[in-house]
Amino acid sequence: MDNAVIENLFGTLKSELFYIQKFNSIAHLKREIKEYIKYYNNERIKSNLNKMSPVEYRTHYYKSLN
Question: Any signal peptide, and if so, which residues (predicted)?
Fold first, then answer.
């Protein structure tokens, strides 16, 4: 099984969230990770996805199939 996709996500999450912020507790860290995943999927633009977020790209792709 290829883990490149999840390894890329974790690398990005660490560089854009974990290394630049201090967390008061594990609960705080968990909240921030959940918020980051929402941001990553819905707002963060990816150049390899035609400058769309992952959700926008999937929506666009599935609409073009119908």
Answer: none
Mean pLDDT calculated for residue range 33-46:
90
Q: What is the DSSP letter of 50?
A: T
Residues whose CB is less than 8 angstroms from the CB of residue 60 and which lie 6 or more positions away in sequence, other chains included: 50, 52
The Cβ of residue 23 has, within 10 Å, a number of other Cβ atoms equal to: 14
Q: Is the dihedral of CA 23, 16, 10, 31 positive or negative?
A: positive
Domain regions of the chain by residue span: 4-65
Contact assessment for residue 43 and residue 55, using Cβ atoms and an 8 Å cutoff: no
Per-residue pLDDT tens digits for 26-39:
999 999 999 999 99
